[in-house]
């Protein structure tokens, strides 16, 4: 007779995310995971399959949470432009340790996307959702006049998504808060009405 699981699956998954985020897929051992997740090796395999399946599920959860958080911040701004600026500047204002982790999604793309169709598909789905969320915010800003009416919202959304990714890579490489704020300011300036 099988013993019932004695742990919360979602909580165990959440505990795996920072390990993969910090160490990447290849750098994370099964021992790292069972220690962080607070479960046994067999429970990891029985519940999540293997390290790769766990990584894909962790990446999916990380990406979904990240896009949801950006969507929430975009809706909370007094104006679309102010909200976009807030999203960009938050990375610069993160603690040095957090900023140096970069982004688990961007890290996964750099480590695995060239050779892993599933990672590439997961990140493409998240990127498309982020682009749509940014485009909606830009369209709203254009209609209210705080973003230039002549701006192509799809191109601007792609630019902002690329800017966010680039800022995360720069942050991981040790860019200063000042340098990241400069990038954010330049991106926001490009959206202002002329």
Distance between the termini: 71 Å
Order of helices and strands: HHHHHHHHHH
* Strand percent estimate: under 5%
Helix-strand category: mainly alpha
Q: Give the mean pLDDT.
A: 92
For the structure shown, list the relevant keywords:
10 helices, about 190 residues, single chain, elongated, about 75% helix
Structure description:
- This protein is mainly α.
- The chain is built from 10 helices and no strands.
- The chain has a domain at 62-189: Tetracycline Repressor, domain 2 (Orthogonal Bundle).
- The mean pLDDT is 92.
- It is elongated, with a radius of gyration of 19 Å.
Topology:
Elements: H1 9-27, H2 30-37, H3 41-48, H4 51-76, H5 80-93, H6 96-99, H7 104-113, H8 117-144, H9 153-172, H10 177-189
Helix pairs in contact: 1-2, 1-4, 1-7, 4-5, 4-8, 5-10, 7-8, 8-9, 9-10
In short:
This protein is mainly α and 194 residues long.
């Amino acid at each position: 007779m099988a013993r019932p699981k004695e742990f919360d699956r979602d909580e165990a998954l959440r505990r795996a995310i920072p390990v993969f985020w910090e160490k990447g897929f290849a750098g994370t051992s099964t021992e790292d995971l069972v220690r962080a997740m607070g479960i046994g090796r067999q429970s990891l395999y029985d519940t999540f399959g293997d390290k790769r399946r766990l990584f894909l599920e962790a990446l999916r959860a990380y990406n979904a949470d990240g896009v949801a958080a950006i969507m929430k911040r975009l809706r909370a701004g007094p104006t679309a432009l102010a909200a976009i600026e807030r999203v960009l500047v938050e990375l610069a204002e993160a603690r040095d340790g957090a900023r140096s982790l970069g982004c688990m999604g961007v890290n996964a793309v750099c480590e695995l996307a060239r050779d892993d169709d599933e990672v590439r598909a997961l990140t493409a789905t998240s990127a498309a959702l982020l682009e749509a969320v940014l485009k909606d915010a830009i369209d709203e800003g254009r209609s209210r006049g705080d973003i230039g009416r002549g701006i192509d919202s799809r191109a601007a959304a792609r630019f902002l998504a690329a800017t966010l990714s680039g800022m995360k890579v720069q942050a991981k490489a040790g860019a200063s808060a000042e340098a990241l704020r400069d990038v954010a300011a330049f991106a926001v300036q490009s959206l202002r009405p002329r």
